[in-house]
Amino acid sequence: MAKTSLPLAASFLLLISFSSAADTGRLFLTVVNNCPFTVWPAIQPNAGHPVLEKGGFALPTFTHRSFSAPTTHWSGRIWARTGCAHYNGKFSCITGDCGNRLECNGLGGATPASLAQFDLHHGGHKDFSSYGVSLVDGYNVPMTVTPHEGHGVCPVVGCREDLLKTCPGHLQVRSHAGHVVACKSGCEAFHSDELCCQGHYNSPNTCKASSHSLFFKHACPSTFTFAHDSPSLMHDCSSPRELKVIFCH
User: Fold this and answer.
1) Which residues contact 82 (CB under 8 A, 6 or more apart)?
2) CA end-to-end span of the chain, whole Å?
């Protein structure tokens, strides 16, 4: 999503354990649009992993789309693009744009945008998957990830709040019409090593929360809000058959 790739560290993500591939069958990813407007979901695999669903598609309001996750290890991210349109023969989106393409085909997207991150493992006697919602790159729509048919403690994680209504003025992104369409991270707003956790600040000991990341954390405590953040919900969940990404949950 952002130009710099954020690691999907297992210690940062919600761990899901699977008893065996035979017991669970196929794992499905489902993307749901509960927003009162069309969104254009985008999917970007991490390096070395296949593109799913050509990397992007339109999803009208109150519809969903399900697809099988790979049966081998896969990691990547899903986000919503908003305000997309064809104009003078070119497709573009107000938020989350991936190089003026409907089908992102592996490309990342423009920040700020809310991200669902996945690290899915299959094979062997024990299979593990992880999921989380990141606001490290900012926010554009409410987003949650919900596991289904899992056992144990299986919390919904993410951000249900409409942060466009409360985004501080210095973090706001506005459309040409003057509407707030996204909320920047402190890193994107000010480009400092400290806020971006770069250079000397690129370690758990030196990368700390800021007033900007705390705006997101206070509203949505189960999300990642800076590079070395730890969300509030980190529970084991076994054998979900589906991971559902819900926009405007």
Assistant:
1) 37, 39, 40, 93, 94, 95, 96, 140, 141, 181
2) 22
